[in-house]
Specification:
Layout: H1 3-22, H2 36-41, H3 44-69, H4 75-85, H5 94-106, H6 115-128
Helix pairs in contact: 1-3, 3-4, 3-5, 5-6
Length: 133
């Protein structure tokens, strides 16, 4: 395992520990079922950790897929390229997505939406850019 992968694993584990300790009251240990009500109950550090973990997981999965498609490309190299070139499914930073979720869940009718679904939907909107004026 390369240095970057090792550090990514350590960072991911640290983020999970922060999130688990900050959100121990939630019933879903993986966070997949969290929705806007859970998001609102999270302290800011847990929100950042949730989004950071989500983004790290998606970038890592994409890097693994690139490695499987071309074994000459290491997972570390693929992660580095995804981050450098902003070619991941979620190309924006942690704070961008955290703030977007804050705005998204401001509207009470969005509270039942799962966080991962809100991230997918909002990311698709951001990738399209601003609408017609």
């Amino acid at each position: 395992m390369g240095g970057t992968t090792r550090w990514a694993g350590v960072l991911g584990a640290a983020l999970v520990l922060v999130m688990v300790s900050a959100t121990a009251a939630f019933e879903d240990p993986h966070g997949v079922g969290y929705n806007g009500r859970d998001w609102e109950a999270m302290p800011d550090a847990a929100r950042l950790a949730y989004v950071a973990g989500f983004l790290a997981g998606t970038a890592t999965q994409q890097a693994v897929e690139r490695h499987r498609a071309n074994p000459k490309v290491s997972v570390d190299a693929a992660v580095s390229e995804i981050i450098r070139s902003h070619t991941g499914t979620f190309p924006f930073g942690v704070n961008v997505y955290k703030n977007d979720l804050h705005d998204y869940y401001f509207y009470r009718n969005n509270l039942p939406t799962k966080i991962y679904q809100a991230l997918l939907d909002e990311n698709a909107k951001m990738l399209k850019g601003p609408g017609p004026k």
